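ok trying this again, last paste got cut off
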Amino acid sequence: MPASGNGELFLDLRQTGGAEEMARLFPPPAYFTARIDGALISDKAALMRALAAAFSFPAYFGGNWDALLDCLRSLPEEIPAKGYVLAVKNPELLLGSAPGERDVFNGVVADARFFLADNFKVPFTIIII
């Protein structure tokens, strides 16, 4: 079982083969993988746009934390998969001009992860590449 099965939300693969290791742990197409680049995401608005594109959120996505949580919780209904991965490149730059938003983002994805595990029995993991 992938690392997310043992309680980890974040998995750092920078030292263990990155994309190759990610594909081994979370093989497509069974797992849906969304990718974002922290170097291109300096604030909350940019994060919302990047996540909406990466996960193909519906056009009515509101671009706020509540809407993000709702869309992440709905992933199994919109994109059926064995599990979900958010691969983040340049994580140290993510939300660089809004560092206070990182904790909020972490809380939202943690809430979504628990919801998906409890209600759909699927993992949600953030991979650092």
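PB: full thing came through this time. The mean pLDDT is 91.
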